[in-house]
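Q: Could you predict the 3D structure of Malate dehydrogenase?
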Amino acid sequence: MRPALFHWKRLEQVVTEVFVQAGARHEHARLVAESLVHADLRGIESHGLARLPIYIQRIEAGLIELNDEPVVWKQEGATALVDGKNQLGAVVGVAALEEAIKLSRQMGIGVVGVRHSNHFGSCSYYAERAIAEGRILLVLSNAPEAMAPTGGIRPFFGTNPIAVGIPAGEEPSFLLDMATSIAARGKIALAVKKGESIPADWAIDPNGKETTDPTQALLGSLLPIGGAKGYGLAMFIDILCGLLTGAATGPHVKSLYDNWQDPQNVGHLFLTVEIERFMPLPDFCANMDAYIREVKSVPTKEDVSEIFIPGEIESRKKQERMENGIPFDPNLTKELSQLCRTYGVDLEAAYHIP
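A: Sure. Here are the predicted structure tokens for Malate dehydrogenase:
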């Protein structure tokens, strides 16, 4: 069966309406819908509409607080601490990013920690928003246990992602978005849904053996990127996002899928830099363009046609999918259709019509 194609803007509208019908305020619903569609546009299916059912299930279970707003609990100088109030993760993330941008405008740099948040989607969503504002952004998040420390066989750290966004001019902006595990947990969960195997170097089973079975991988442990280096990076992120902010850490971050008693209490950290404090933004972007062209001019191997900068492949995919539609696996389309019907929303209204 061929994948169904969806128009990105109409899909945002449909998903927004699902969240509204589930009890979210319209502006909050729009932000979460935008973040999910953003991921699918960039080809990060593990963080796209595949997450919609679990978000709604947690709302239905009363594990997400829809009637509160994230608040700046403490602010001093260039730093602030945001209490997410257990709101939808994207709502919390955007509030923290906006606070960081405000601080960087005033102080040259803004550092905002977040506690009491939830899964906030793809980090690249926030990096892209910061780039549009002409800012450099570093964003970190911890996550539920999924990855063992090097040498261990029991998960302790989350996949703890990191993203960096840096604006350019005519060239594509630098947008690095990566988990500290070899593969994001969402990719493995997606492989389970699709009945696919995974590469043997992604994870170990509960006995510490390499596995290509995604179900065994989820029962076991993901492996850190770069071995001990990825483990160290994951621990660093957990310290900044958890210990520093007062959010949960390691195995104390509650599972999005398996814990139905407690809020997640995810922690994030946003750091924005005001480029104008160093040089005029147009000059910086022109310098970035020249730098990127120099990187891309490096001679390639025989089997490589082009050098890409971080985020460039995803940016091209986004443009292509905005024009030609976002493809969804038939199983996901069926699941989303059933969910939409439950809330009186017509998923077919989002189909891409060439």
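Q: Anything worth pointing out?
A: The chain has a mean pLDDT of 96.
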